[in-house]
Amino acid sequence: MSAAEDHPQDLSLREQAARIASGELDPNELLAATLERIDEREDELNSTPLTFVPEAEAMLAAAPPGPLKGVPLTVKDMFSMPWHGARSATADALLPPGESGMFRRLRDGGAVVAGLANQHALGWGTTGHISAYGAHGNPWDPRRSPGGSSGGSAAAVSARLVAGSVGSDSGGSARIPAAYCGVVGLKLTYGGVPRDGYTGALTSLSAWGALARDAADTRLLTEVLLGRRLERPGGAGLRVGIVRAPYWDDCDPAVVASCEQALAAAGWVTQDIELSAGELLPAAGIVRTMCELVPATPAHVLAAADPLVRAYALYARLWPAMLVARADRVRAQLRVDLVRAFERVDVIAWPTVPAPAPPLDSPAVELPSGTVPADAANVRQATAANLAGVPGISVPVAPHPSGLPVGLQLLAPWGAEALLLGAAEHLEDATGRAFVDARPPLAR
Q: In terms of DSSP H, where are the helices of 79-203?
């Protein structure tokens, strides 16, 4: 093991799995090292508020042969496990303990659930500053947002607490934290995995999310989540669609420059395309999400929630029913536009988030259009993939002048996770892996 890898948690997900399979790494030692690393670094982050020591040891002892046999992961608090009912970072369990579809996929792949990933309460936010477990921070600067709602998953991977984590994505909840924390985050195609035991099961926008340090690790975790092997297409020579308004035009100039440089380094051919309902997509996404989630949230949970969360719920209850019909018209047009776009291009690209991670105590970002709440800016960049159900990925492509990571987002046709992962791996290689291998201060 090299000096840079003197702790087993500094190994990649695939290296951990390979060394366990070869007998070079003892999985019991890896689990102990994982729990030790969480204890060492969690005071500043709060990304993993609960660890499951006896339960993880039992999973390890019973782990079947599989691609991730003996590898510890964390899991977002939207998925139930036999010993923990999903709470979505609220004070009460929203679902009873049990074997969620996600848990079964990890268990059958040999993985070990070592801890619970913190998240933005109820998944209704992109910053992570609201949670029953307490706010959680960014490994690049713990005073900054890790993103949301799967912020704990991204922060834990970035800080080398675990090599992979399972999140979810209803409005960018895997891709936004990945961009803020400098890791890879993949939103799966809607409907491609079991939805039982998942607090996002009742929404038509939510999908599982795989978060890891690079594209190859994310591929391995995704294959376990999907329960099948993925093709391995190369990422060279892709045709990339660019939707200027609103996804590139109203972003921090340094973010735009970094994403453009990454596309140039990849050598891809780009062409401008349009989404005819682009300006309406954020509103359609919010209407659809809140009208599905608010009625499914128990009244006593909302009554005990943060005032901002309660305000969102009360506001959504005042919307006239016609808004849902209008949102669905926008959604239908988006799907038509994407079918046509993917006849001309292989993937579509724009910045994952329009500005780097904001302070936790003041979650707003500075854009050419002015000071904007981070949630509004982030949902604008993310919601197209959720409304359409297509897969999306965020790949770290540069440091911002602030020192915080910048992420580029790629969208692909329905079911084309393999294409996205191949594109992401090509992008990493084209930039010399300088950004995907970068370590935050907390992990050095």
A: 101-108, 151-158, 175-181
For the chain, state the CA radius of gyration: 20
**CATH code of domain 3-443:** 3.90.1300.10
Is 90 exceeded by the pLDDT of residue 188? yes
Which of 389, 427, 432 shows the shortest CA–CA distance to 408? 427
Q: Note if 76 is an active site residue.
A: yes
Catalytic residue, candidates 131, 149, 150, 170: 149
**H or E element: which one contains 113?**
strand 112-117
% of the chain beyond a pLDDT of 90 = 96
One-character DSSP codes across 243-284: --TTTTTTS-HHHHHHHHHHHHHHT-EEEE---TTGGGHHHH
Confirm whether 204 is a catalytic residue. Answer: no
pLDDT tens digits for range 24-35 = 999 999 999 999
Q: Exposed, middle or buried: residue 97 (CB in 10 Å: 0-12, 13-18, 19+)?
A: middle
Active site residue 47: no
Q: CB within 8 A of 20, min separation 6: which ones?
A: 26, 27, 30, 69, 70, 71
DSSP assignment string, 168-213: EESSSTTHHHHHHHTSEEEEPPTTSS--TTBTTTT-SS-EEEEEES
Among residues 173, 206, 258, 394, the one annotated as catalytic is 173
